[in-house]
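Batch manifest line 344
LIGAND: fe (ii) ion
JOB: complex structure
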Amino acid sequence: MIFRQLFEHETWTYTYLLADPDSRKAVLIDCVFERHIRDLAMIRELDLSLETVLDTHAHADHVTGAGLMRLATGCQIAISRASGATGADRYLDDGDTVSAGSLKLEARSTPGHTGGCMTFVAEAQAMAFTGDTLLIRGAGRTDFQQGDPASLFRSVRERIFTLPDEFALYPGHDYNGRTSTTVAEERTHNPRLGEGIREEDFVGYMDNLDLPHPKRLAAAVPANMRCGAPGDGALVPAAPDWGPVVRTFAGVLEIDPEWVHQHRDALTFVEVREAAELDAGPLPSIEGAVNIPLSVLLDRHSELPTTRPVITLCPAGARSGQAALILEKAGFERVANLPGGLFQ
Ligand SMILES: [Fe+2]
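JOB STATUS: finished
ARTIFACT:
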């Protein structure tokens, strides 16, 4: 199986990509609105076809990227029926299966953090995605969104800890840099839910956490109750639209070479080879390109006009990728790298 664990650093959220390597069909679990462009680039670069975006629950701390992902890829959105969310393509009940090619995920109801929480179990891969029901050495909070500590206790004990010992568990968040755990590990070491702890101990613990409400609660819950469909005035993360530009997983804006060829008269080209390379002899280049070596681009970018889109060039497209990043950071709104460079 193709597997990626991605991190969103503002809300400490994990997003998971799972894909069948033969059919290239993929499932994305708990993607984040603000990381849409990154996640889309990953799917594109791994040559995957996204079948379904899954949310383990209607989140309170961040807006799901599900709505944006459906708009971009045509995938389906699935979430538990018990979440009460509107706008999904599929509403999951306990025991339902979500598949992508040969990959199969069993949806298990694990309420407690919210009334609609699910854990997704990949039996063949011995993995489970627990959302905010079970965290590494912890548990999701239970003080809002139909949270119920007794029900969370039973979900973990009866639906997660009953999986085989060696199953790897992947949570929806971690606040201490931990990435995964196992059933046996949590049964032994989870200080809230491990063996020997009784339901009333857990309930007493959870009822007295006294945590502040998540900062984004007021905005996140209504947006997630419509599966992350962008509301009026929402700042939708998107690649620039002045040309066929994509942002790569590496974070660089890249433009379609054919479009560049057709629009060359309306563009500014900056090639970033160093002076010594220019002296060594001619390289295939584009007529009218301005040379500003990468090593001095940060100091000299004001020599470039901002009235036309700027395309960065170099022999292999690597240094010019860095150049595009530098110019974007310097405030150029229309800039992109020519991928593959001048030798393509
Ligand atoms: Fe949550």
